[in-house]
Amino acid sequence: MKILFSPSETKSALTTHGLLKKESLVFPYLYEKRYQVLKQYQALLETYDTTLLQNLFGIKDTQKNLVQASKNIFDSFTCKAILRYSGIAYDHLSFATLDKNAQTYIENHVMIFSNLFGPLLAGDLIPEYKLKQGESLNGFKTEIFYKEYFSDAIDAWIGDETILDLRAGYYEKFYTLKQPFITMKFLKN
Fold first, then answer.
1. For residue 147, what are the CA distances in angstroms to 118, 171, 181?
2. Within 13 Å, how many C-alpha atoms sit on residue 63's CB side?
3. Residue 148 contacts by C-beta under 8 Å, 6 or more apart in sequence?
4. What is the average per-residue pLDDT within 86-107?
5. In what side-by-side order are the strands of the sheet with 77-80?
6. β-bridge mates for residue 85, sequence order
7. d(CA 156, CA 138)
8. Residue 63 pLDDT > 70
9. 157-173 in b/e burial notation, b at 16+ Cβ within 10 A?
């Protein structure tokens, strides 16, 4: 079974591995495409435009938070994506408490769709970053870009396996399923 999942807005500051490199991510042969997005993001961070960064990060408060969120992603240490994200679903999964077999399964069978990094396996190594859901990179829509360049690779990764799609609606824009799948929609209240 392959599981498609969303990231979380909250992220841990955990650093367990070295710097970001193409071998750290699924589909390393597409790294140059992914690098185009990361480079645009880093260029926006380096503008130090407070209003632009507040919109990009979804932060309205202190300069300290802007500085923290503006760290250079190419100079930052990484950890597994499944440990980087720390929202409610990730907290309830409690990945670190699972046995090694369960962790390995999740690392290789769960694909997380990141606003910034695009499709990631749960075991991929990514730095801490901040990017508000749905926020473009100064007009550049990452969901359209990743859908165009990564869909064939995702199709091949899925193969003929059963699919459990747990993505939030927004992340369906990154990849359209082409075969039957199981899904669940979570409703408030």
1. 9, 10, 18
2. 2
3. none
4. 95
5. 17-19, 77-80, 125-127
6. 11
7. 31
8. no
9. bbeeeebbbbbeeebbb
Task: Quote the distance between the C-alpha of residue 174 and its chain's center.
Answer: 11
DSSP state of 98: S
Tens of pLDDT, residue by residue over 1-21, are: 999 999 998 899 899 999 999
User: Which amino acid, one-letter code, is at 144?
Assistant: I
The pair of three-digit structure tokens given for residue 127, joined into one six-digit string: 């730095």
Residues 12, 79 contacting (CB under 8 angstroms): yes
What tokens does 96 get?
């670190």
Contact 143, 36 (CB under 8 A): no
Q: 3-state DSSP call for residue 99? A: coil
Among the listed residues 153, 148, 151, 144, the one whose alpha carbon sits nearest the alpha carbon of residue 173: 144
Q: Which residue has 């769709």 as its token pair?
A: 113
Quickly tell me which residue has 């075969």 as its tokens. Answer: 179
DSSP H or E run through 152: helix 142-158
**Which residue from 8, 1, 3 is spatially nearest to 114, judged by alpha carbons?**
8
Q: How many CB atoms lie within 10 A of CB 179?
A: 11
Q: Which tokens is 184 given?
A: 């669940």
